Amino acid sequence: MKQTPVSVVSELSTMKALVVPENTPLTVAVERFSSNEGQHGIFLTDAAGRFSAVVDNRDLLNWARVQFNLSPGEVPLPVGKTRRLLNAKLVRDLAMPDSKRKAVHLTDTLAEALNRMARHDLEDIAVLDADGHVVNDLRLSEVLAFALRLQA
Questions:
Q1: Most buried one in 11, 25, 28, 124, CB count within 10 A?
Q2: CB-based contacts of 98, cutoff 8 Å, min separation 6
Q3: Cα torsion 76, 81, 87, 90: sign
Q4: What DSSP string describes 46-111?
Q5: pLDDT tens across 55-104, in order?
Q6: Backbone phi, then psi, for 54, in 5-degree steps?
Q7: For the whole model, what pTM was predicted?
Q8: Burial of 29 (0-12, 13-18, 19+ CB in 10 A)
Q9: How would you classify the pairing of strands 103-105 and 51-56?
Q10: Residue 31: inside a domain, yes or no?
Q11: CB of 102 within 8 A of CB of 125?
């Protein structure tokens, strides 16, 4: 795992993540996301088709809480974030500014991928080629299954 590149596991699976341009209307992206069970987020691409951000389940949950005027729960959202979510028109408006770091490259190791997934609390992470295009997603379940096969 410490030496195995992400590409080894990535080649074994098909992409299940939703990938949309960052200027997609929010309602369109949410409709597409909600029509396909098993997705854990939305990967966004810029005008050149390169990965630009991710909208994960937490972003979607926070948006839903604000849109449906639900109680803030145990951890209320900061005022600035609430305003941003209320005014969101495009899917990129939901993405956290630092979410571009929530991706791995084909050449990264599985250990690096797992560490990044743990750091950002992700079950699914974008896999990028050398040019920054999304070529697949790497799911925690795939990494665990691969690790178990190595031990057998």
A1: 124
A2: none
A3: negative
A4: -TTSBEEEEEEHHHHHHHHHHHTT---TTSPPPHHHHHHHHT--BGGGTS-TTGGGSEEETTSBHH
A5: 988 899 889 988 888 876 777 888 888 888 889 999 999 998 889 999 99
A6: -135, 140
A7: 0.89
A8: buried
A9: unpaired
A10: yes
A11: yes
Report the 10 Å Cβ neighbour count for 60: 19
User: HSE on the CB side for 91, CA within 13 Å?
Assistant: 27
Query: Identity (one letter) of the amino acid at 54?
Result: V
94 vs 88: CA distance, rounded Å = 7
1 in a domain, yes or no? no
Specify which residues 53 forms β-bridges with.
44
Amino acid found at 47: A
Does any domain span residue 90? Answer: yes
Which residues form the domain of 55?
A: 6-151
Token digits of residue 74: 């145990």
User: What values do phi and psi take at 137, rounded to 5?
Assistant: -125, 150
CATH number at residue 116: 3.10.580.10
Nearest to 53 by CA among 105, 106, 101, 116: 101
